[in-house]
């Protein structure tokens, strides 16, 4: 097992709440990584002392293990402790992007261009991506997906969810779920994205298909079931039936709700015990009260408002009301074709009233809550060693320097990427 001591961390965001600080911030810190897990987190001075005694204990064991900085990859010295100098950089948990739609064909740059001259966003464009996705081969989709995964890693995202929803036939939804499962365990079956054109006059037949054959084909590859509960997509009543069918097949519910206007999505998500309701752009007081009294996370997707020129959700109001807020990219070719979690943080701070620390928490620990994961989103003993070194002295720089690629490197499951 590889053991690595990451030292000289200028500011460490642990997300283990301490003295009223939800980010559990440490200065001049160190992290010990054993295999794919965090073994220890603490003050750099304590690490140096422990390392020195480790040196003494192992002095007869051959190679020295002093705390010298090294650029050698940790894997090079198996069973020995490698010491890596973070150079005073800020270190944060890897981003947890709990909402993406990354398996698709084609793009819709023409729609984006039209929106920027005043054409409103219409979710009907989803059907164009469905056509392009159905026309793509498995290998084409797989290659595209591999490119997106590399893009996520380069930007510090170490855990990500992927939804189906651009196939909308049994065979196409099954292959999207299967391809997504090749790169993440957080796969969401979204057969209820929109009613495909060929069922426009027979929506109840399509919903029956989603709840039965399509669900049976996709459930083995999936953890979650999602529904786009919105005017023009699925009603609350339809969504409830679809989510219940998913739950009966062992999937856990999450909901797209209140994106394009007020509606019942949020209240449905809370009533169904969903892990998360995503978008939350148009909320009333009843929605906020329901969320505040629930275990359902409000996942905000500011890339959508940025790319569709919609009003941003009021994150400040949600947080002040006691709602748990996550940030995610919603990366998809229609409403938000960006996979950048640093951009979500910058938008959340500059447009949605979040503090930089709240936004970083929401993009890490918040995403983990939205995926009901207790092994990612924080840096503490026993958790996955997923962490990001920033080319910056503090996490605030993620919002302070929008558009600047501040991710120096990411460690994923204890391995530098
Ligand atoms: O989350 N809202 C529904 N689905 C996506 C948009 C998909 C698309 O436009 O292709 C979303 O915004
Ligand atoms: Fe989405």
UniProtKB/TrEMBL annotation:
Q: Name the domain of life this protein comes from.
A: Bacteria
Keywords, comma-separated and alphabetical: Cytoplasm, Histidine metabolism, Hydrolase, Iron, Metal-binding, Zinc
Q: Is Flavoprotein given among the entry's keywords?
A: no
Disordered: annotated span: 51-77
Q: Which residues form the Amidohydrolase-related domain?
A: 91-392
Give the protein's biological function: Catalyzes the hydrolytic cleavage of the carbon-nitrogen bond in imidazolone-5-propanoate to yield N-formimidoyl-L-glutamate. It is the third step in the universal histidine degradation pathway.
Name recorded for this polypeptide:
Imidazolonepropionase
**Source organism:** Microbacterium yannicii
């Amino acid at each position: 097992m590889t053991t690595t001591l990451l030292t000289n961390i200028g500011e460490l965001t642990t997300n283990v709440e301490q003295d009223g600080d939800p980010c559990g911030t440490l200065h001049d810190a160190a992290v010990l990584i054993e295999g794919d897990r965090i073994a220890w987190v603490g003050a750099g001075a304590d690490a140096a002392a422990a390392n020195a005694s480790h040196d003494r204990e192992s002095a007869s064991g051959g190679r020295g293990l002093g705390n010298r900085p090294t650029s050698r990859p940790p894997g090079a010295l198996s069973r020995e402790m490698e010491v890596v100098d973070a150079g005073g950089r800020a270190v944060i948990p890897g981003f947890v992007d709990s909402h993406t739609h990354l398996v698709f064909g084609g793009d819709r740059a023409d729609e984006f261009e039209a929106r920027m001259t005043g054409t409103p966003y219409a979710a009907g464009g989803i059907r164009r991506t469905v056509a392009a996705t159905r026309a793509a081969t498995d290998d084409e989709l797989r290659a595209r997906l591999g490119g997106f995964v590399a893009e996520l890693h380069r930007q510090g995202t170490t855990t990500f969810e992927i939804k189906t929803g651009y196939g909308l036939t049994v065979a196409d939804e099954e292959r999207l779920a299967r391809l997504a499962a090749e790169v993440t365990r957080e796969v969401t079956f979204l057969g209820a994205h929109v009613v495909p054109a060929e069922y426009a006059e027979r929506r109840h037949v399509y919903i029956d298909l989603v709840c039965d054959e399509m669900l049976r084909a996709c459930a083995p590859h999936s953890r979650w079931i999602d529904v786009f509960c919105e005017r023009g997509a699925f009603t609350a009543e339809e969504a409830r039936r679809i989510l219940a069918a998913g739950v009966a097949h062992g999937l856990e519910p999450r909901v797209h709700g209140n994106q394009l206007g007020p509606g019942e999505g949020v209240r449905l998500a809370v009533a169904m015990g969903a892990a998360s309701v995503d978008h939350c752009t148009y909320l009333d007081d009843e929605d906020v009260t329901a969320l505040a009294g629930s275990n359902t996370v409000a996942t905000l997707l500011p890339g959508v408002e940025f790319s569709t020129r919609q009003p941003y959700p009021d994150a400040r109001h949600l947080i002040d009301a006691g709602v748990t807020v996550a940030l995610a990219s919603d990366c998809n070719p229609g409403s938000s074709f960006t996979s950048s979690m640093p951009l979500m943080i910058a938008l959340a701070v500059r447009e949605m009233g979040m503090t930089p620390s709240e936004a970083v928490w929401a993009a890490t620990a918040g995403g983990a809550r939205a995926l009901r994961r207790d092994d990612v989103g924080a840096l503490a003993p026993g958790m996955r060693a997923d962490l990001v070194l920033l080319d910056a002295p503090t996490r605030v720089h993620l919002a302070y320097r929008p558009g600047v690629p501040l991710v120096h490197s990411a460690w994923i499951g204890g391995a530098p990427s």
